[in-house]
Every structure is written in structure tokens, then in C-alpha cells.
Design goal:
alpha+beta, four-stranded antiparallel beta sheet, 12 strands, 40% helix, elongated
Length: 339
């Protein structure tokens, strides 16, 4: 038979039949070998990539750092001022209380009212203090004790002069002359005591005036009344009565990363861009720089002062800040901030 043909062997007795193996099963499978070769090459390539991964990561990180450094250097070389978030706050927010305990008689200013330093803003009940002041004033006007002691001194002086003359003429014993001298000393001491008592009464008058003054609560700063914390009829001692905010000047607070520490001084100025209240940028001057870093956040704070004479800039808002110049070229910064 020719190759590639099926041969059938028949056995008449048993009826057994056999089929010969196809010839293609005995030849190598070329496609299988190609597939196995590719799998082995792929496995070798994956292992090589795993071995090279640290080097690739190191090179990639180096390239990233170099790129970031180049970008920072380019930004610094461009001269554009760096901008930071900041807050516009009142220079002082005072929780005004009472130096003494008492009951509020009346409030003298309303919320949002403008007040000046020393202006009365609330009055406590002060009937007893007023009566004590009236009594002290009456005692301070009393001069009768001093006048009486002065008259005693004049009498004692005349008596002493008379006794000296009589003793010189040997008409009175020395004992009478000594008694006259003693009365003169007593009169002088009594007059001195009366004058000291008068000065003490004057001090008591001042004390009564101060006690009455403490019943009047006054504003500690020029500002605006933000909130009433107590009302007439309420008892106050340690609790505040009003909240007053000083709006001129304003306080600019900015928090910077530690890498900027030491870069600014108290003579620096900055351009402020508030959210509301100003159509043009404003100029603020560095007032306070923290001398220590916050180890939890890695930052430090800077406080700037922003003049607000017309109270056009409200406090309590966000802003953007740019440290653009120092005090030496402040005029240029101001000119550039003008429209």
C-alpha cells in the first residue's frame, strides 16, 4: 500500500478490524514549538523587567525630581510673585466685661454702632455707690475741724507768749510756763492731725468716685459693636457684656510652609487682594513674624497691618496675598496697585 492510505485487515473468523495511526501524528508539530518558544521568551522578558524595576523606578524618580526642580527654577526666574491664601481679621476683638459684679441697668449702644475708646456702652445699677459718693463729697467740703484746730493754735501761741513775759518778770513759776508750752505743742499736733484727716477725706472721695466709675462699662478701643452678650436685668461678673471689634487697622493673617522661614522681615510689604470691599489691591506691612515653627503642620505665621481709615474693608473675609516688595520700593508697589 501507499503511504497515507488506510489499510484494513479483515479476519473472517473473529471479525476484528484495526486502523493504522495517521502519518501526521508521527511528524513534529511546528506551531506548538513556535508557541512554546514565544511563552518562554515572554517569561524571560517578565523576569528581566522585574529585575530592572528598581533601576527604572530610580531613574523615573530622578527624572521627575529634575523636572520639578526645573519647573521651580523657571518659576523663580520668571519673577512672578508667589500668592498665598490669607484672612482679613479685625485688629482686636474684645469681649468687654465688667470689672465688678452687678446687675445691668441699661445698654447705652446698639449692635453695629460705632464707638470710640472710653465711650460708655453699659451701666450697672449703682444706687449705693452714688450715695457713698455724695457722702464723701459732703465730708470733703467740711473745713470746721481745721478751723477749730487753727483757733486753738492761735490761743495757745498767745498764752505761751504771755507766760514767757511773766516768767521773765518772775511773776509765774516755771511750771506754768512749761504747761503753756505743752498746750502749744498739743495745738500744733491737733492742727496737723486735722489737715491729715482732710487729705484722707479727699482720698476717700476719689475712692468713691472710682467705685461709681466701675459701674459704668466703657469701650476699650475704637470699633464697632458686634454683639450684645448680656441685657438689662441680667447679673454679670465674669461673663462678657458686649463684643467690640477694632476695624482700623485690620489684621492680615497668613500661614506659610516652613521652607519660607527666614525669607521675610518686619519691613516687608505685601499686596492684598480681598474678596470684597476693594476694587484695587491694597498694601499691608509685615508686623509680626513667628519665631518658631509648628512641628505638627510644618508651618509658621505672619501678621500684617492693613490701614482701614474709612472702614471700607470688612473684617472676617478671605484674601490673596503677594509678597512683592520691601519698604525701600514701597512707593513703586503702591503706584502699581493704583488703578
Amino acid at each position: 500500500m501507499h503511504d497515507g492510505m488506510c489499510v484494513w485487515h479483515g479476519n473472517g473468523a473473529s471479525g476484528d478490524t484495526r486502523h493504522s495511526e495517521p502519518p501526521y501524528n508521527k511528524t513534529p508539530d511546528i506551531w506548538t514549538d513556535i508557541w512554546l518558544s514565544r511563552e518562554k521568551a515572554s517569561e524571560d522578558s517578565a523576569q528581566q523587567r522585574l529585575r530592572d524595576w528598581p533601576l527604572l523606578m530610580k531613574n523615573g524618580l530622578l527624572i521627575w525630581v529634575m523636572a520639578g526642580t526645573s519647573l521651580l527654577a523657571a518659576a523663580s526666574a520668571s519673577g512672578d510673585p508667589e500668592s498665598f491664601d490669607c484672612l482679613v481679621e479685625p485688629m482686636v476683638v474684645a469681649q468687654v466685661g465688667s470689672p465688678v459684679q452687678g446687675v445691668i441697668q441699661r445698654l447705652l449702644v446698639d449692635r453695629s454702632a460705632m464707638v470710640t475708646a472710653g465711650e460708655p456702652i453699659a451701666q450697672l445699677e449703682s444706687g449705693i455707690e452714688q450715695a457713698s459718693l455724695d457722702q464723701a463729697r459732703m465730708r470733703a467740703r467740711m473745713q470746721s475741724e481745721i478751723e477749730a484746730r487753727e483757733a486753738d493754735l492761735v490761743l495757745a501761741t498767745h498764752n505761751m507768749t504771755r507766760m514767757d513775759n511773766l516768767f521773765a518778770q518772775k511773776m509765774v513759776p516755771a511750771q506754768q510756763r512749761d504747761e503753756a508750752r505743752a498746750k502749744l505743742h498739743v495745738a500744733e499736733a491737733a492742727l496737723k492731725q486735722a489737715r491729715e484727716n482732710y487729705r484722707l477725706v479727699q482720698q476717700e472721695l476719689k475712692r468713691a468716685e472710682e467705685l461709681l466709675e466701675q459701674r459704668t462699662i466703657r469701650s476699650p478701643v475704637d470699633g464697632v459693636v458686634v454683639e450684645h452678650r448680656a441685657f438689662p436685668g441680667e447679673f454679670v461678673y465674669e461673663n462678657p457684656v458686649m463684643t467690640i471689634a477694632q476695624l482700623d487697622p485690620l489684621r492680615i493673617e497668613v500661614v506659610l510652609p516652613a521652607r519660607y522661614f527666614g525669607r521675610f522681615t518686619e519691613d516687608d510689604v505685601a499686596v492684598i487682594h480681598p474678596e470684597i470691599g476693594a476694587q484695587t489691591p491694597l498694601i499691608a506691612e509685615v508686623d509680626v513674624i513667628d519665631r518658631m515653627l509648628d512641628n505638627r503642620s510644618g508651618t509658621f505665621g505672619i501678621r500684617l497691618t492693613l490701614p482701614n481709615p474709612d472702614l471700607a474693608i470688612p473684617g472676617g473675609q478671605k484674601c490673596r496675598l503677594e509678597f512683592a516688595a520691601t519698604a525701600q520700593n514701597r512707593a513703586e508697589v503702591v503706584a502699581s496697585a493704583d488703578p
